[in-house]
Structures are given as structure tokens and as C-alpha cells.
Amino acid sequence: MLSNGVYTANLTPLKADYSIDFELLVEHCQYLLDHGSTGLAILGTTGEANSFSLKERKEILERTIQGGIPASKLMVGTGCCSLPETIELTQHAINLGVGGILMLPPFYYKSVDDSGLIKYFDEVIARVGSDDLRIYLYHFPKMSGISFSVDIVRKLKEKYPQVIVGMKDSTGDLENTKKYIDAFPDMQIFPGTEALLLDGLQAGGAGCISATCNVFSPFAGRVYEKHVAGENVEELQKQLTEKRMVFQGLPFSGALKSYLARVNDDHRWKTVRPPNEEMSQDLIDTLIEKLT
């Protein structure tokens, strides 16, 4: 199981032809681990996972680990609409020794009963059939259209206490995150934004898993470490929240890549896979001005 802390919802750099830039991927992952990130949540929403084929997703994970990134520090997104693909990606990740699985619900069919959703996880867990499986539920109803109610989580946790170990709550709603923290004190509940890092920790949360930690990982890591050490970090958290809010509401993949391309003077960051798009230069100018 993964430790508490700051996890970056990792970008996946691409070449101009939309193929994966593995060299830059490993370079970025190592930078994040060296600068504030406890671990990395790869192949999530910000990582454009659902724009990649099954083969590409497997190779991204393989090449990341081959590049020297410890598998034990990786939380890997494997949730697909297709049950067999979710099983295959999850088995592949477990075989490579990853620390945890970040699993979306099957997100195409929206009007599904709780029993159908639970059956989906029943099948994944049974068919993966590994004692090493640790699932973090990925709660992002704005994108998936499906919510993990407290009742569903409770039923899954009661059936699979050693497997269902945590959640990423990407609602951005502190009260909603607290609802899960209060209901499941033995689970690792991560808010999906560093703006809620301190509030979540004070409520009993595990840290955060955030897209904008691709840029603010050093700052978020400092807030987490100082809080754990018993220091007052209210002012640091205020500054971190202000930084996060500069990007709030933007499509993170395009905005963060375009920002990194500009501030690092590195054109390798510019490409996102359609239908995502890079941000306009005027918008990036505005972002930089606000952050400055």
C-alpha cells in the first residue's frame, strides 16, 4: 500500500506525432519525486489515459519503471469502460509491482444501479485474483458521470477490506471529502487538489493527488512535510491555494503542458492528443503574469 503524502497526477509528454516521449516522461517523473512528490499517479485524467490504447498504456508503465522510477511509488489508473481491459491493465500493473491502482468506475453507461457497479468491482477483483491488489477508488463524477456513494464504498469495503484501501475525491468539495474521511477512517482519502491539502490533513485525510502538482509539487511537498513535523503552515497553504487557483477551471492537460513548455523553454511539452488542445499563448501570458 502507498504511504500518505503528496501525489502528482502525472502528465504524459508526447512527441509532435502524438507518440509518447518516454525520455521526457522519466525525466519529469524523477524531477517530481526529487522535488516534493511522495509518489506519482500516472495514467489518470491529466495523464490523458483515456486517449491511449491498451498497448500504449502498458508501455507507458513499463518504460517508466524501466527508466528507474520505483514501481512502489506509482498509483496507476486502470479503469476502463471495458471490463476485460480493466482486468488486463490491473493485472499488468500488479505484476510490475506498483504501489496501488487508481480505478475509475465504468463511465460510459450512466444510469446504472449500485448493484451493477458493485458487480463490476466483484469481477475485477476476482479475476485479477492477487493478494497484492490495492484499489483507490477514483471519484470524479464531473468527468465520469458516476458517483461512489458512501453506501457503495461501505459495501465494497466490507466485502474487500484488504483491497479497497483508499479514494481520490476529485469533487473539489471539502465537505464531500470530509464525508468520506468521517465514514472510512481506516481508508486513505485524498482530495484531488492541493488547495484542500491542509484542510484535508486536519480532518484526517491522507494528503492530496493533484494535477497542478506537476508545477507546484515542491511547494505542496513543503506544506505536507512541515505539517507532519508539527509546524504552522497556514500561510504556506494560503500561498499554495492561490497558486492552484490560477489554473482552476482550465483543461489541465493542455494548460499545464503549455505552461511548462513556456517556462522551461522546452517545446517537447507542447503536444496534447486530440480532442485536448494546447493553450493559446495569450492565456499562458496571463497565467505567468498572475503567478508572478
List keywords for this structure.
single chain, 292 residues, alpha/beta, TIM Barrel, eight-stranded parallel β-sheet, 47% helix
Structural write-up:
The chain is an alpha/beta fold and 292 residues long. The chain has one domain (5-231): TIM Barrel (Alpha-Beta Barrel). The protein has 12 helices and 8 strands. Strand 4 (100-103), helix 4 (114-128) and strand 5 (135-139) form a beta-alpha-beta unit. The protein is globular.
Tell me the helix content: 40-55%
Task: Return the average pLDDT rounded to an integer.
Answer: 96
- By CATH, the architecture is named Alpha-Beta Barrel
Distance linking N and C termini: 38 Å
CATH topology: TIM Barrel
* Main beta sheet: 8 strands, parallel
Got a strand count?
Answer: 8
Coarse structural class: alpha/beta
- Give the CATH class: Alpha Beta
Largest sheet strand order: 7-6-5-4-3-2-1-8
Tell me, briefly, the overall form: globular
Order of helices and strands: EHEHEHEHEHHEHEHEHHHH
Alpha plus pi helix count: 12
Q: Indicate how many domains the architecture comprises.
A: 1
Low-pLDDT residue spans: none
Write a brief structural summary:
The chain is α/β, with parallel strands linked by helices and 292 residues long.
Topology of this protein?
Layout: E1 5-9, H1 22-34, E2 39-42, H2 54-66, E3 74-77, H3 83-95, E4 100-103, H4 114-128, E5 135-139, H5 141-144, H6 150-159, E6 164-169, H7 174-183, E7 188-191, H8 197-203, E8 207-210, H9 213-228, H10 234-247, H11 252-263, H12 281-291
Helix pairs in contact: 1-2, 2-3, 3-4, 9-10, 11-12
